[in-house]
């Protein structure tokens, strides 16, 4: 009889731990953010990474720009963010890796970036761009013209 009672107490204790453990969820608030990124009046290059950093709490997130210039953060913590835009692709590798650049030139695969698609250095980091956006609860929209 004692064994059954201790099993009953043990199972009740386990149930309480599970209930308490599951009830402590994420207390942060979230919203979504979407919009269009343009460069010189045209959609920014597809694959460009939109990076957001909240300087107050360190929250950070990134999303890619699609071919039509659209970007989407389906879930971002509520707050004010600094925003940067990092181009992706072989031109970026060539810009940052001189050995890769020489390899591409020698192989004949390097393509000079079109001046219309080069994101100015100023916009490449959230700290230097001077661009900010606020994410509030619910759906948010913000376009960026670089």
Provide an overview of this structure.
With 146 residues, the chain is an alpha+beta fold. Helices cover 29% and strands 34% of the residues. The protein is built from four helices and nine strands; from the N terminus they run H-E-E-E-E-E-E-H-H-H-E-E-E. It has helices at residues 2-22, 90-96, 98-107, 126-129, and strands at 30-39, 42-43, 49-53, 60-64, 70-77, 79-86, 131-135, 138-141, 144-145. Strands 1, 2, 5, 8 and 9 form a five-stranded mixed β-sheet that branches. Strand 1 and strand 2 (42-43) form a beta hairpin. Helix 2 packs across helix 3. The radius of gyration is 24 Å and the shape is elongated.
Brief summary:
The chain has helices at residues 2-22, 90-96, 98-107, 126-129, and strands at residues 30-39, 42-43, 49-53, 60-64, 70-77, 79-86, 131-135, 138-141, 144-145. The protein is α+β, with helices and mostly antiparallel strands and 146 residues long. The strands form two sheets. Strands 1, 2, 5, 8 and 9 form a five-stranded mixed sheet that branches. Strands 4-3-6-7 form a four-stranded antiparallel sheet.
């Amino acid at each position: 009889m004692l064994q059954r009672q201790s099993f009953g107490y043990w199972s009740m204790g386990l149930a309480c731990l599970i209930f308490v453990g599951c009830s402590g969820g994420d207390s942060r608030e979230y919203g979504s953010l979407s919009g269009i990124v343009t460069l010189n009046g045209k959609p920014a290059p597809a694959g460009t990474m939109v990076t957001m950093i909240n300087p107050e709490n360190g929250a950070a997130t990134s999303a890619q720009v699609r071919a039509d210039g659209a970007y989407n953060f389906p879930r971002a913590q509520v707050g004010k963010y600094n925003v940067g835009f990092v181009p992706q692709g072989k031109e970026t590798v060539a810009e940052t890796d001189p050995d890769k650049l020489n390899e591409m030139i020698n192989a004949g695969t390097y393509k000079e970036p079109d001046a219309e698609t080069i994101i100015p250095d100023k916009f490449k980091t959230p700290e230097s761009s001077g661009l900010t956006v606020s994410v509030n609860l619910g759906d948010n929209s913000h376009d960026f013209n670089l």
